[in-house]
Write a structure and sequence with these properties.
By secondary structure, the chain is α/β, with parallel strands linked by helices. Helix content is 39%, strand content 14%. α8 crosses α11 (362-374). The relative contact order is 0.11.
């Protein structure tokens, strides 16, 4: 069997592509590779990336080594997005009828991307796997019958956009983009109707989509990580962690909310505590330039196991976005307790006050963090309970087998 995998999330470089979107991408790639004799992967790379035979061969070798994947790599460019020359109203209303006209979806909606996809179809793949909604724009240009389609919708784009604009619009006028949300929802429905199977990361997301799509066309594949060795934080360590990629606005917002609203309250309860803000592009967090007291910005962390050995509690004050937080699943795999907003833990199978602590009030979140910092026995009990729940729901090898079972079952059906 031969498969074609299409994504715009080019792992550049692979060894640093370790955050949520890439971990899920890699999980589906491994599942497909285990079923297929040949796996072709088409990435739409940034316009500035140099594409030639040498670069493709180099990156193919890197992915085969760093991700342990036997793939055939193909690259094409995304289109440049020029600065708008029209008024704001016209600019924001352009994509109200077709999501492929929205920023940044139109980067993958041009003839260049459609031609790259058409070239790969000449090799007659048995199925196509589309990674996220944006790459579907390239498909609508093609005037031919396609092999069975699968799509991963771990992020419900219409929901993520709506939440971001309501919670953290860059300026009041940006909320005009709310007019684009219905087109994104309709596009999501269109893609699911065209696919043999659509995958989401939680039962909650399946329930949302089932309001306007057939439930049997949607399957839940949770985010997952390997089971790690449980960490034993040194006695007396009182460290709070937040981790993420801060090029993703909800992570930058959460880090700023933690530093400004929650962290000062934790310090009042626990003056000796320390806060670690880990992950790439910390300069996109407004407080980064202020060098706040007792806050360490690590940048990209290569060895998460070493980091977690120094951590007492993960705080996840996410206030926007959709999907499920890999950072919470990852902390549970190490046996580290989590304090999160309800949105941050949305869709995850952890019981409040037993396997996780949930609150949306900064004062209460700070109190919960301080309580765990100051009570080692409770901290260990919650972390252990979270780790048991992790094994039940989010262990990576078991989830990869579920993906393979879903693909095999769907391909065996006529349609």
């Amino acid at each position: 069997m031969r498969a074609l995998f299409v994504s715009r999330h080019f792992p550049n470089p692979p060894e640093q592509a370790t955050y949520g979107v890439f971990q899920r991408l890699r999980m589906f790639l491994e599942a497909a590779a285990g079923l297929c004799e040949r796996l072709d992967v088409l990435f739409f790379a940034p316009p500035s990336f140099e594409i030639n035979r040498k670069s493709i061969a180099t990156w193919q070798d890197l992915l085969r080594v760093d991700w342990a994947l036997d793939i055939n790599l193909f690259l094409s460019h995304l289109d440049y997005l020029e600065q708008p020359t029209t008024g704001a109203l016209r600019y924001y209303l352009t994509g109200t009828l077709d999501y492929c006209n929205q920023h940044p979806y139109r980067q993958a909606a041009g003839t260049k991307q459609a031609h790259a996809l058409l070239e790969r179809l000449q090799d007659k793949p048995d199925f196509i796997f589309l990674h996220r909604l944006s790459v579907t724009c390239a498909c609508w240009h093609l005037r031919q019958r396609l092999p069975p389609l699968f799509i991963d919708l771990d992020d419900l784009d219409y929901l993520a956009l709506s939440r971001r604009l309501r919670q953290m619009a860059a300026w009041p006028g940006e909320r005009l983009k709310l007019a684009q949300v219905p087109a994104l929802a309709f596009g999501t429905r269109k893609v699911i109707a065209a696919a043999r199977k659509a995958f989401v990361c939680s039962q909650l997301d399946k329930k949302r989509l089932s309001r306007f799509c057939r439930p049997e066309s949607i399957s839940v594949i949770p985010n997952a990580v390997p089971l790690h060795e449980a960490v034993a934080t040194p006695q007396g360590t009182k460290t709070i962690l937040f981790i993420g990629s801060y090029g993703y606005p909800p992570n930058a917002d959460a880090a700023e909310f933690l530093i400004k609203q929650i962290w000062p309250r934790i310090q009042r309860h626990c003056p000796e505590a320390k806060l670690i803000i880990a992950g790439p592009e910390p300069e996109k967090i407004p407080s980064f330039q202020e060098s706040p007291q007792s806050v360490e910005f690590t940048g990209f962390v290569r060895r998460l196991d070493e980091l977690y050995k120094t951590v007492s509690v993960l705080c996840c004050p996410i206030r926007a976005g959709s999907g499920t937080r890999l950072k919470i699943i990852e902390a549970a795999s190490y046996g580290v307790p989590v304090v999160s907003t309800t949105l941050g833990a949305e869709g995850l199978e952890f019981r409040n006050r037993e396997e996780i602590y949930l609150s949306d009030d900064p004062e209460e979140m700070a109190g919960l963090c301080a309580f765990l910092l100051n009570n080692v026995a409770v901290r260990q009990a919650v972390g252990n309970a979270a780790r048991i729940a992790f094994v039940r729901h989010y262990e990576r090898k078991a989830v990869i087998r579920r993906i393979q079972d879903e693909l095999t079952a769907a391909l065996s059906r006529r349609g």
